[in-house]
Write a structure and sequence with these properties.
This protein has about 280 residues and is an all-alpha fold. It has 13 helices and no strands. The longest helix is centred in the N-terminal third of the chain and has 25 residues, at about 65-85. It is globular and about 40 Å long. This is EamA domain-containing protein.
Length: about 280
């Protein structure tokens, strides 16, 4: 549904963005199915299969947009790489909290470039939403590693760069064509890293193949491509802020599908996050 840029009102775009967030939230649950498959390999197939699905939408674009789309794909690959690497060095909670600073970096990029400079209401809303994310984290903040924390922070910065570039290019390039280019560029970069680091690229069983196909269809095609669809209509900082709902969506899906009931603090934090996004 995100292959064509049909003019829509802001309310419709907001609904589509929330659907993209829900789809992206399913990634944590689907990764459980890919147990035993290296995260780098999961990211490669997730983006590579998505690029293949979007290939019919490939169109010729100008040299500038071609280069920017490739750069956005590189930034997305760096986001995956640094974030996954951080998860091997620091706690999941610390990594998730630090990577959730993406809206702040996207807002700062907007201020530096003069593109969609966020107003006071945005910063106020981000402050509320970030407080909600931290409120959900009552344990697990100890046991961190400086390099792991730094990698998570870099992951947030790369994600902000990826979204900010998309905001610019999406004003001129259709979602199908842009999606094909960023996914293809990202998968290529991840494949190179996998070869250099000796990471195996092939799933070894039907369960892992099912997992990567589901990740391509849900979190990537509906989730990330949905985010890029919204970038045609909304600032990168706003789209990044909507991403703060991902951990909450993942918690909801885990409760429904895996029986992992959220704590009262997580529920309270979710309410605060939603309030912050409502302000934005």
């Amino acid at each position: 549904m995100f292959w064509h840029d049909v003019p829509k009102g802001r309310s419709a775009v907001t609904v589509l963005l929330l659907a993209a967030v829900l789809a992206a939230s399913s990634g944590a649950v689907l990764v459980r199915l890919a147990h035993g498959l290296p995260p780098l390999t999961v990211a490669f197939w997730r983006t590579g299969l998505a690029a293949g699905a979007l290939l019919p939408s490939w169109r010729s674009v100008g040299r500038k947009d071609k280069g920017l789309a490739g750069l956005a794909g590189l930034a997305l690959a760096c986001h995956f790489w640094t974030w996954f690497a951080s998860l091997q060095r620091t706690t999941v909670l610390r990594s998730t909290l630090l990577v959730s600073s993406t809206p702040i970096w996207a807002g700062l990029i907007g201020c530096i470039t003069g593109q969609d400079v966020p107003g006071r209401r945005f910063w106020f809303g981000v402050g509320i939403a970030t407080a909600g994310v931290w409120c959900s984290a009552t344990t697990g903040l100890t046991g961190g590693d400086f390099l792991g924390d730094l990698l998570a922070l870099l992951g947030a910065m790369f994600c902000a760069i990826y979204l900010s570039i998309g905001r610019d290019v999406r004003q001129r390039v259709g979602i199908g064509c842009y999606g094909t280019r960023i996914c293809g560029s990202c998968a290529t970069c991840l494949a190179i890293v996998a070869v250099v680091t000796g990471t195996p690229l092939w799933p070894t069983c039907a369960r892992q193949w099912l997992a990567v196909c589901a990740l391509a269809a849900g979190p990537q095609l509906t989730g990330h491509i949905g985010f890029n669809f919204a970038l045609h209509h909304l600032p990168a900082s706003t789209v990044a802020a909507a991403g703060l709902l991902e951990p909450l969506g993942a918690t909801l899906l885990a409760a429904l599908l895996l029986g992992e009931v959220p704590t009262s603090n997580q529920i309270f934090g979710a309410v605060i996050v939603v309030a912050g996004l409502a302000v934005i």
